[in-house]
């Protein structure tokens, strides 16, 4: 079982600690907020394309809300650990779990999507598909593990890269976050060749070969349990479950709220789904909720109120699931998400959450506007990679290929690096683009739009 005194660390990757009135974990939150990678999330699609007059969530607002939910979960679980394990905790650990775990979880939630490329999951698919379709041209230039990183490109692994890598001309250690925050976003703590469907912590992968050494430092500093060496696999860290739960809670409920604002789901149906969910999680409090609902006349406000109550109940139930499975979590043996545990232990909640998921898949994630932007985004990202990857790998470049490379900012160019490092630089550039910037650049290099850019 993991030692609660050893699974967190205020140390930072690549830089020394500095004196400050804020705790190390509060500084993490502020560093993320002020980073360019986080700011770019404001123009990255969450689910719906940004419609202009009707507000829907983008990656940035989603991340802020997940951070808020994560703070609540971290506070509840931190208090639980403090009370349950007080005699086993040293003085520093008592302070950490009571007053800082929620800062760690909130910071991790804030940056959990920072590695996602433009256009949501279709951006990830475009990157993976580009390399799959060009296997005969490129595969021989890379090792098996490097090639697997590309053909299964993963936003979670890209997040670790963005947060920890040293770009050309920039500081060592990336954003310089604490090991505690970095380990909390590692949902899939294995390398790409170890990814295995059906195994929760290996369903995807969590770090590229370029960040393998850094990830090993993170794992060592936070006492992660190593499951295998070749390929490298760790068991999930105990903090990860809280970040995952915060994300699961938000997208299950908030995507429904967005669909209501856009008129995709009938108002009464949306109300009934959320009321039934709250009733399944808090039978004693549902009458009070219904009475309050009667006093609200605005339709959007009704849904906002029910969204808040639903999230509140899911937070309470997730914290309780964590407590009930605490030993499994510390041993690295839990194989289900906290939300899945809630569903398995509550038939009514399971039925309602299944209904919400079924509705979301049928009417939200397959809505024509969502499918349109996924198709468009796939093509934009694929074409941008086509424009940059082949030239970056050539020793002798044509004039047009040299011009293509000049479009890539210097911090993404690794001219003296390996082919793997050079391509990762291109992926850093393309995956970091906002939807708007990627679309604009695509239009310009294709000649669809010509002229001086301000």
UniProtKB/TrEMBL annotation:
Name of this protein: dGTPase
NCBIfam families listed in its UniProt record: dGTP_triPase (TIGR01353)
Keyword Secreted among UniProt keywords: no
Species of origin: Moheibacter sediminis
UniProt domain HD/PDEase: residue ranges: 55-261
Example GO biological process: dGTP catabolic process
Signal sequence, renumbered to the chain: none
Keywords on record: Hydrolase
Matching SMART domains: HDc
One example GO MF annotation: dGTPase activity
